[in-house]
Structures
1.
Amino acid sequence: MNNKQIVKVLEDIADFLELKGENVFKIRAYQKAARSIEQSSVELEQLVNEDRLKEVSGVGEAIAKKITELVTTGKLEYFEKLKAEFPPGISTLLEIPGIGPKTAMLLSNELGINSIEELEKAILEGKVAQLPRMGEKTAENILRHLQAVRHKDQRIPLGDAVNVVDGIFTRLRVIPGVKNLTPAGSLRRFKETVGDIDLIGTADNAETVIDSFVSLPMVREVLARGLTKASVIVTRGLQVDLRIVEHEAFGSLLQHFTGSKQHNIDLRERARRQGLSLSEYGITDIDTGKMETFLSEVAFYKRLGLQYIPPEIREGTDEIEKAAHGTIPRLVEISDIKGELHVHSDWSDGRDTIESMVTEAKDHGYEYICISDHSVGRGIARGLNHERLEQQIQEINRIKQRIDGIQILTGMEVDIRADGSLDMPDEILERLDIVTASIHSGMEQTQEKITARIIKALENPNIDILAHPTGRLMPKREAMDIDMEAVFQTALRTGTVLEINAMPDRLDLKDTYIYRARQLGVALVINTDSHTTEHLSLIRFGVGTARRGWCEAKDILNTRPLHEIMKYIKSKGRQR
DNA sequence: GCCGTTTTCGGCCCGACTGTTTTCAGTCG
């Protein structure tokens, strides 16, 4: 049983306990444990074997026992019994926004409703509105949400969300009196997908900003609208929340709305022990009732005796404890990146010429760039065969004469075939500066096969980098089924570099894998895999993801000057 | 159910909005 499945069971337990009306703190304990496991970079099965489950924050005696039962037997008796107490399907009602445990139980008990379809029918027949504490308006709202859930494409990739925000911001910025307009929430934390978009700002008069916001042309529907806060639905069923406070409270507002939820709960619990109460408006002394406001997040954290915590690692793991001890590292920044080792040109499936890619990289302030077009196996991408690669090497040599101020490397993204062999002979690869390998086909193989295939490629001394290691494409293609721990161990042994692919629909390696790889000391590189000149600026998504994995500059190969990279790559110390 | 530079027992984040209410419950983030 993997982490994802365990998380699901814990979440379901929390749902059923809610329906049952159990102690809210017990429910919260299950939810906290689930969130915590979701963030974990280690498979719990491993921890069970080593009897280290209770090292996971939020996992105590009782939950550890339940996880152990799940892992060893594949089932949990407590859960099965709990589930049996309710009509099947009732928990699906909780997926509809606006329906909580009380409403779900009411619908089930009074009207026998246990599915979304039954609910819709009952609303249309006017039965729901007649229930106690319901009414026409509530029934109508539930119906609306129910239909929205059906059409909404769940969480959207980070890159898409950023585009939506850009569209909204261009229009909101022109509203008079609005300041500090900033995306917060999971977007600011660079989470790979976002469920909704949180925007915040400050204003002299919040109400006028809210008014303008709800009447923006892209707004399809207004869900809620108060004096300082509004929620709307824009294209693709995406929910956007805007919250406005007064200028002097911006620091605490930004902190509050950035989350994560678990980070804020942990932070507030800690503050409470210090006799302080936190809110989006500021920090209140519980005894005196006096509130301080904060212009910046740095000041806010400082008041709590904490080092500043970057948004990307505010996930409620152990960041607050580290901040209290002053041991939050300086995470890698975009300005640390000195070059790019994986870009394509119009020689294969890229749009732009080698020369324009190089010029663009130079404009980014990069010291080096490696041209790595596809190999012949990727016929659809116009992959290069021997002769064309030979011609490309000569072309790159000519460009080197014309452009100075940036070092140009010759590379290739070689296809790892279904049997783990490469579709370019070693004697050719030996001549290239940097060779990247990746899988583009046969991604449905068994875990055993794929893992063996990747390990074989990593063991080839000519392969320097493994690109987009898990092959996922959000939202449509899942990661390949790989034993990542085995891949990390092999990369460590062979010295092969693993890529953090910055393309917003890839972000591959993902954050938790990065965390684990870094912990083990695996070499990492952040590449954009650019196919156009514009793509080079997507590096920020790769850096954000690396930061979520707690990477410092020293963990990332392309923060180093080229001669150091080449020294590493060609080093004899690597045992292959 | 978890957890501890005030506690191994007694606490457990905080506020906004909506709708159906005569003062608040339910839900959300």
2.
Amino acid sequence: MPELPEVETVVRTLAPRIEGRRILDVQFYSKQILRHCGAKPGALRDRRVVRVGRRGKFIVIDLDRGFLVIHLGMTGQILFDTPRTTHTRAIITLEGTSMMYEDSRMFGSIEWGERLTARVEKLGPEPFDISAADFHAELQRHRGPIKSLLLNQGFVRGVGNIYADEALFRAGIHPRTRASRIRRLRADRLHAEMQAILLAAIENRGSSVSDYRDAEGRKGEFQKLHRVYDREGQPCLVCGGPIRRIVLGGRGTHYCPRCQR
DNA sequence: GTTGTTACCTGTACGC
DNA sequence: TGCGTACAGGTAACAA
């Protein structure tokens, strides 16, 4: 499932392929992925791609007028010049290339307009842009479990289920811990581990746990370095005890009961 | 305002 | 082999 490192990898492989190119045609094969968009597809024609960037898990494509925003959801992929399949939800034809949006589960979305929508504007800061002091101060304002807070995109944007579990393990914090009860020293460590793991995952081109691929069709490598995620019952790489899985906020949550108290 | 729960959606794994 | 069921999770909507 694409989180910040996966989306960053897609952006890096996507940018050189479409920046500077003009959109010639747009075809959509699913209304489901357009649920956040009021504008008509024809409005994209003849717009030129200026820059490809990212806000959290959203791919933000700056056009010479307006924005095109893609969220990959759970199973979204961007591929180029491949044959249309049953999972092709959109084809954006640009000068010299065709960009295919593939999404089997259709949790993803494509939207565009003159300005960014509220759901993109209201995201919290990038995990690399928040200071340790502000991070700790923000924790003090929330009484819910720290795991749920890390997944809240209004708190920090881009952290998903995998990297929340991995960051909490590396910081030695139990996922059920109330955020407001985490003291400064621990908060600093979580802040540092969160940034470190995201950077390491970007270096490894993300984690391919389901069917994630970058825009060149390549898998990521970081899943080989997971310490708790999807390792239920396997020995902890630090203490040797079994990794446990619980459901927290409706999400599978992996942790080591000995290392995370 | 915050927190928790559920729906959306479909491929995959599993049990019978 | 084939069928039914549970599960995976990012976001939005809703309830408490």
